[in-house]
């Protein structure tokens, strides 16, 4: 798919743009923008594409999408058949992360909101426990002054930080961004993975970066990330391969080697383990 940049800049000298979308169907364009996007789907269903993730969407879905994160909402086919009773509706906020982070950086009590915006680089899907209060706050924002809207957005973000069941959408490998855990000890490891995952990575070398032996490193890494180092590395590589697949510039075998796998059969096996389908089947899910 061709990736397009959409300009979501507010032309009224404001730090956020609040919109009610109501269309026969959502914009079927694989795109990104420089602003964070908070979206609440109020009507319609279909398939959402966020980074390398493909999932169904339905009314009540609540997501926070990071800047530069490619995404698209593709409604079910019935919405493209010009049936007047069907509408695709959503409440959407676009806001400039840099402006808000400058403010948040000055207020220690806002650190959790800052971390939430950082984690949005992979996209975040929120659970039922916060949907109702966020829906009410979003509805009320349309009656507020610009200043009150900003304050209300801070309140929404604060509510979102309380969701213990929120989940990341896209893989870290696709976005090339890492939501670092609380311990800074592994920062050098994440940096190394980011810069070398297309090459051979030896466990001993990575453990040395963390000043641990291999066994201790594996235990610590799993404790922090809730997954093994090898699985984490494979997910990063598979996420990156998804990006290459969608660009449609290389063969599957070329993508395997460019993503850090030393043979095609292992790549196909790992891809199916992570994504649940083969690379070819994965590509077919994306509209051309």
Automatic annotation (TrEMBL):
Record InterPro entries: Homeodomain-like_sf (IPR009057), HTH_AraC (IPR018060), HTH_AraC-typ_CS (IPR018062), RmlC-like_jellyroll (IPR014710), RmlC_Cupin_sf (IPR011051), Tscrpt_reg_AraC-type_HTH (IPR020449)
HTH araC/xylS-type domain ranges (all copies): 187-285
GO molecular function, one term: sequence-specific DNA binding
The keyword Transcription belongs to this UniProt entry's keyword annotation: yes
Keywords: DNA-binding, Transcription, Transcription regulation
Highest taxon above the source species: Bacteria
Alphabetical list of PANTHER family matching this protein: ARAC-FAMILY TRANSCRIPTIONAL REGULATOR, TRANSCRIPTIONAL REGULATOR MTLR
Protein name in UniProt: AraC family transcriptional regulator
Organism lineage: Bacteria, Pseudomonadati, Bacteroidota, Saprospiria, Saprospirales
């Amino acid at each position: 798919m061709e990736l397009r940049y959409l300009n979501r800049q507010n032309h009224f000298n404001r730090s956020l743009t609040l919109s009610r979308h109501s269309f026969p169907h959502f914009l079927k364009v694989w795109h990104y923008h420089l602003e964070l996007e908070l979206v609440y789907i109020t009507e319609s269903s279909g398939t959402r594409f966020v980074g390398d993730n493909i999932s169904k969407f339905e009314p009540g879905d609540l997501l926070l999408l990071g800047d530069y994160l490619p995404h698209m909402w593709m409604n079910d086919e019935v919405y493209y058949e010009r049936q007047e009773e069907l509408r695709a509706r959503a409440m959407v906020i676009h806001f400039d992360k840099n402006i808000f982070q400058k403010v948040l950086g000055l207020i220690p009590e806002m650190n959790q909101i800052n971390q939430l915006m950082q984690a949005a680089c992979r996209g975040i899907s929120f659970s039922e426990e916060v949907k109702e209060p966020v829906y009410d706050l979003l509805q009320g924002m349309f009656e507020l002054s610009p200043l009150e809207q900003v304050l209300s957005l801070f309140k929404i973000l604060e509510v979102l930080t309380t969701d213990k069941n929120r989940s990341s959408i896209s893989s870290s490998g696709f976005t090339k961004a890492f939501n670092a855990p609380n311990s800074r000890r592994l920062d050098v490891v994440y940096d190394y993975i980011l810069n070398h995952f297309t090459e051979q990575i030896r466990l001993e070398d990575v453990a040395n970066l963390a000043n641990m032996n291999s066994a201790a490193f594996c235990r610590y890494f799993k404790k922090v990330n809730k997954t093994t180092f090898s699985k984490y590395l494979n997910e990063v590589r598979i996420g990156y391969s998804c990006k290459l697949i969608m660009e449609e510039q290389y063969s599957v075998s070329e993508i395997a080697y460019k993503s850090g796998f030393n043979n095609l059969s292992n790549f196909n096996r790992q891809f199916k383990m992570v994504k649940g389908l083969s690379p070819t089947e994965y590509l077919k899910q994306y509209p051309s």
